[in-house]
Amino acid sequence: MSQKPLQGIRVLDLSRVLAGPWCAQQLADLGAEVIKIERPGRGDDTRAWGPPWLEGSQEAAYYLCANRGKSSVAIDIARPEGQQLVKQLLQDCDVLLENFKVGGLKHYGLDYDSLKTDKPDLIYCSITGFGQDGPYAQRAGYDFMIQGIGGLMSLTGQPDGEPGGGPVKVGVAFTDIFTGMYAANAIMAALFARQQSGTGTHIDLALLDVQVAVLANQAMNYLCSGQVPTRLGNAHPNIVPYQAFATRDGHLILAVGNDAQFGRFCDTAGCQALATDPRFASNQARVTHRDSLILLLQPLLATRCTADWLAALDAAGVPCGPINNLQQVFDDPQVKHRGLQFNLSHPAGSVPMVANPIRFDGQALNASSAPPSLGQHTDRVLQQQLGLSAADCQRLRAQGVIA
User: Molecular function terms in GO for this entry (predicted)?
Assistant: First the structure.
């Protein structure tokens, strides 16, 4: 590609932790210039969320996962001089991204209503726990609690009454990450709309809204049937057999998506009679008779090793897979081939990164600079964008406005 799709777009990122930074990193990978405004002396909270740390640095791995491709500018927005610097930087930006509490930036004159008069083409994206209005609007929201409030944890985990039964959160901050991706999508849509209208917009994204939205088929299962879905462990509510099974030496994921695949599974497993049994001949029947079928398959799948099943089922065109730990993931030949782990130069030497999965014309879209150290680009950005002199920066630093 001669240039990345968002080249020429400039984003002022006042967000912290994960949802906002994940959005901003996505925009940076796609070519936008992202200026990350951080609190002097402390910066993004996740810088301190370790161990583990990048070897030879004080940067937490958590911070590194969501901040590549950005410039870090340390400005104290609690001071009038700092607020003025942010407003000046914003004049040459297309987007402001923030995840303060509702009304949290109004005190500093950095809320949308305060800024839109002077910059009517501003795209202003606010990420909060519960949105800009409603009875919960003033409450803080965190991924874990939103997974609970938004219903995900009622669907995740072993059924009540079984060993290990009870609600379980997803192993990564699922709601934060999805919110970041929705935010990036919304910002790009707003940029496109601005080409026609010439005006900006205020994007209101709430973690709770996103969590409810991505309940997907489970939400529709409830809305269409009136029956509240329950936890099924690793099983699927609408497809059978589609779950993990114990093998002779480990576990296997069997993901039968249609009747033809079930027939091929039965041929491979030597249980052809199940494919024609009226209780199991169609997916609808298999869902109805789930418990009976699983009781028949469990001892059968336990007779062979995982590797044997994987080879045989793959050859038969039956979707299946192992359950890898993260070392196995990054050692997987397909993961290696796709370049999903790469390295960027960093003051500590090198930082490993997980690649952006988007490819244009076969080219991966990854920002070329590592997550910045706190205030790494303060002087450069203020001098290049605002025309400040080295002496100006020195004076502001002595006053505690920048770092």
Answer: transferase activity
pTM above 0.85, yes or no: yes
Any idea which residues carry the catalytic annotation? 176
Tell me which CATH code domain 242-323 carries: 3.30.1540.10
* Reported confidence tier of residue 2, pLDDT bands at 50, 70, 90: confident
- Evaluate if residue 222 carries a pLDDT over 90: yes
pLDDT band at 243 (very low <50, low <70, confident <90, very high): very high
1 pLDDT band, cuts 50/70/90, is low
Residue appearing with tokens 């990345």: 4
Instruction: Report CA-CA distances (Å) from 38 to 47, 50, 251.
Output: 11, 19, 45
The domain spans of the chain are 10-214+337-398, 242-323
